[in-house]
Amino acid sequence: MELDGKVAFVTGGSGDIGGAIAISLAKAGVDVAVSYVGDSQRAAATVDAVKTIGRRSLAVQLDQRDSNSVDTSVKKVIAEFGRLDILVNNAGWNIGIPFRDLNALTAEIWDRVMETNLRGPYLLARAFAPELRRHKAGRVVNIASLAGIAPGGSSIAYASSKAGLIHLTHCLAVALAPDVTVNCVAPGLVEGTRMADRVPEDIKR
Q1: Which of 17, 150, 161, 181 is the most exposed place for a label (fewest CB within 10 A)?
Q2: Which of 158, 160, 163, 176 is catalytic?
Q3: What is the value of pTM for the model shown?
């Protein structure tokens, strides 16, 4: 895919991984919108970094568990850039709970993890699908985890959400073909990130 002049939306652009993705895309010639939940300052820093590279950028407040917030973000991104070519579903949430501690993994925690890590990417892909299909060359990239491939990671809920995201990738690839490709990256623990800092040392090992 020729990236120069394309537009991407990177969710969780206020985070360490999302910020790195946004900057890498900008270096490849992409204009980049990023989302944040509450940390507008970190999102602004990512936007400034993208603009320093010479690309356009925008930060959008987004709670991807909320369909109304998703729809609002779609309108803002397309209104600002006039198009969208790439959706990177990077935003996620985790909490360190040992697998054996079933009682600590409450229904509320389970729901928050699933709504953020699995429901959110689906809602975003669905909302952006008409625009991604428009140029018949759209791209969706979902950021999963090795925890979605083998039983490990920060919690059972997190691992299950990422396994679901991997299968959602396969399903969306069928749903959006041939105009949009849908792929997935499943990294391991990325040290030095805020998400990794929330994971207890024994789980990291």
Answers
A1: 150
A2: 158
A3: 0.92
